[in-house]
Amino acid sequence: MRARPSRRPTLTPAFDLPQFARDSDRWAKAAADDSNEKASEVRLATRRIDPLGTNDAWARSVTGVPRVTVTGDALKRLPLDHRAGFLLSLMDGSLDLETIIEVSAMSHEDALALVRDLYDSSIIEFTESNDR
Hints:
Layout: H1 17-32, H2 37-46, H3 55-61, E1 65-68, H4 72-77, H5 82-90, H6 97-103, H7 108-120, E2 124-127
Antiparallel strand pairs: 1-2
Helix pairs in contact: 3-7
């Protein structure tokens, strides 16, 4: 059985897609070139080093509830997919990580990896809930 195409309109991304593609190609080339020390310094400076190996171990180590740390305008400029957008819509400080993972309709591993990427990118943080 073939799935019917959706009748929902598709929105164009809020960022410049051709520029993002060019930047991505440039970043991939810089990452592949080990002699490019500047790119390595930037990657190290902007990535949080996490000693926890697995996403499950990371999830057990965080406390509180996830909240979005960037403004709506800044979010619009980020190259996030629909899955990340849905997860971010749930992160208003009222739901804990376990509940967000359960209602995401994604596999546990995929949802947890995405939440961890959002955290590592400083898009979200974990704070104490106001509801408790």
